[in-house]
Amino acid sequence: MKTSLRRFRGFTFHHRHHDSKDRRDLRPLAQLDEFAVAYQDMHDMRDCYDSLLSAAAATANSAYEFSESLQEMGACLLEKTALNDNEESGKVLLMLGKVQFELQKLVDNYRSHIFQTITIPSESLLNELRTVEVCALWTL
């Protein structure tokens, strides 16, 4: 798919200074077919990354909700520890409360990694694809 992106850039830079009507007359049919294939590849890539961004957003939102629930549960367990008179069950509740907070940290890290590894690079690529698409349409 990167080759399709390069093809568009080649078309854009190579044909930028010509009138669009002159370009249509000079461009061979095979080159137009190649352009159509590259344009379709770019469209498919954009759809793929749009879907990936949507899934990443849904996952990050779910992770956020889960993290909030873990925090509430941890706070509740620690609160029950203070109210509990039984030493053994108090230790268990304290341990469970601490584990909830550790799980919350892990889920928050996971959510952060979703943004760093999927969301930000995908948005950058989609912006680049939009730029290439505009340039490619300008060459027609």
Task: Describe, in plain words, how this protein is organized in 3D.
The structure is a single chain. This protein has four helices and no strands. It has 140 residues and is mostly helical. The chain has one domain (2-139).
Task: Produce the secondary structure layout.
Blueprint: H1 2-14, H2 20-26, H3 29-83, H4 87-139
Helix pairs in contact: 1-3, 1-4, 3-4
Key features of this structure:
140 residues, 4 helices
Number of DSSP strand runs: 0
Radius of gyration: 27 Å
Number of discrete helical segments: 4
Task: Give a quick account of the main beta sheet: strands, pairing sense, barrel closure.
Answer: none
Q: Which range does the strand content fall in? A: under 5%
Give the overall pLDDT as a whole number: 83
Order of helices and strands: HHHH
Oligomeric assembly: single chain
Fraction of residues in helix: over 70%
Could you list the spans in which at least 5 consecutive residues all have pLDDT below 50? Answer: none
Distance between the termini: 21 Å
Number of domains: 1
Given the helix and strand composition, which structural class is it?
Answer: mainly alpha
Molecular shape: rod-shaped
